[in-house]
Amino acid sequence: MAHPPPSGSVVLMDWYRSVEGKGFFSRIKRKEKRRIFGLLEAPPIPPLINVDTVRYKVFLSGKSGVGKTALAARLAGLDVSSVHYETIGIQTSVVFWPVKLRDSGQVLLFRLHLWDCGENALRRFDHLLPTCKEQLDAVLFLFSFTDHSSFDDLPGQIARGCDPSDNVVKLVVGTKFDLFMHTDVTEREVKAFQEQWAVPVFCIGGDACDDLQNVAPLLNTLAELLWHQDCVTVGAVPANESAVGDTSSRAGH
User: Fold this and answer.
1) Looking at domain 15-251, what is its CATH homologous superfamily?
2) Per-residue pLDDT tens for 212-249?
3) Which residues of 99-124 are buried (b: 16+ CB within 10 A; e: fewer)?
4) Which InterPro entries match (predicted)?
5) pTM of full prediction above 0.70
């Protein structure tokens, strides 16, 4: 993976708040809630509007109970269950997210195909992890602020989730950030991890409100890194042009 660009240098992070942005986001919403799209569905974009759709596969990795299924639901605008249950096999969902590129002003519609697989299923069936990693574009590595062992497992997750030679975008998401009374992972530990691994870290709270501002920081950064990675791959941007900046963020808090 190329060095991540400084946050906001590729896409306009607050564009979804603008009048123009709200017009595009109205295509993925219905009655102030985000629409649910199936695998063969897409937002109704008028034919006279020039918007390219770019497609990516995203795998959610993490120990059982850290909130992979809840995060996938939150990103897709689905209802988040208050009861934890182990994901059986592989569950997928589709997220559409429009962004505007900073330099060209072009609007892109990102189609993010989220793959979520239960930890026990991955251990029992050897073919599931290779299936999840096939033609993979990004991995979200999850840990819970209420479970230090899930944080300690991050290096192993990264080693299992993708090979060093793969052009795969990596993001770390810490869940249950708002449960201060039960926090097992300190912000100092998170900062040290980010500096050592050069991977952006996001912190997600437990509020399941379907509000764009709760998911915009994470989805915009994911879109930015995916597009930057593609530009580096085709040679449009030198791989060493950008340095790692302060990419940590708190979303949904």
Assistant:
1) P-loop containing nucleotide triphosphate hydrolases (3.40.50.300)
2) 888 999 999 999 999 999 998 888 777 665 443 444 45
3) bbbeeeeebbbbbbbbbbbbbebbee
4) P-loop_NTPase, RSG1, Small_GTPase
5) yes
